[in-house]
Write a structure and sequence with these properties.
7 helices
């Protein structure tokens, strides 16, 4: 199945995948950084994972909590002949990230991290992700402006979203001020993207 068809089907069934402009930017980031090891939080049906793999020679570890989505993603990776480069971990992202860190096998291993999982947990995940990200590596987070609520393009969020909006605002400020990140950019396209690099302590 071609990427366009995966996109079309995902949107028809309400599966959260990256929007079109974000898709293009993500592809550009990957091509520019030329990673060897990518970590993705939020596999969905593999749309962004396939994009990153096809734009690089990297391998991919991707975490997805929904078993049904993970099965579809596995089929999509296989159809694109990428299953030998993609490992899907099914489980809660916080739990699985903690496992990666505690194993001591992945500290500073990933040179590109794409964060597109549960928005309310972005800030909680940050410290774990910085352990896993290589010095000088690229960090990208999607949906950080959450439908225009975070930067107040839309000024009246429903009560349901207030916690997520507050946490995403805190996450953005944390990324701006973090001693671990440099070259921070907040890109106001689609739902908002953060681009940054981990400080290169080897320089």
């Amino acid at each position: 199945m071609e990427l366009k068809e995966i996109n079309k089907r995902a949107r028809a069934y309400g599966v959260p995948i990256v929007k079109d402009n974000t898709h293009k930017i993500l592809e550009e980031f990957v091509k520019k950084s030329k990673p060897l090891h990518i970590l993705e939080i939020g596999t969905a049906v593999g749309y962004s994972g396939i994009t990153m793999l096809e734009a690089s020679e990297a391998d991919l570890v991707t975490i997805e909590h929904n078993k049904d989505s993970a099965k579809i993603a596995q089929k999509n990776f296989k159809n694109h002949k990428l299953n030998n480069r993609a490992k899907i971990i099914v489980g809660d992202c916080m739990v699985e990230l903690a496992k990666l860190v505690s194993s001591n096998n992945f500290d500073g291993y990933f040179d590109f991290i794409f964060l597109d999982g549960p928005k309310a947990q972005y800030l909680q995940m940050f410290d774990l992700l910085m352990i896993l990200l290589k010095d000088g590596g690229t960090f990208v987070a999607d949906n950080v402006l959450f439908r225009g609520y975070v930067n107040k393009t839309i000024t009246e969020p429903t009560k349901r979203y207030k916690t997520i909006i507050k946490r995403l605002g805190d996450f953005i400020e944390n990324c701006k001020k973090s001693k671990f990140l440099m070259n921070f950019k907040l890109i106001d396209i689609d739902d908002g993207i953060i681009y940054a690099q981990k400080v290169n302590y080897e320089k």
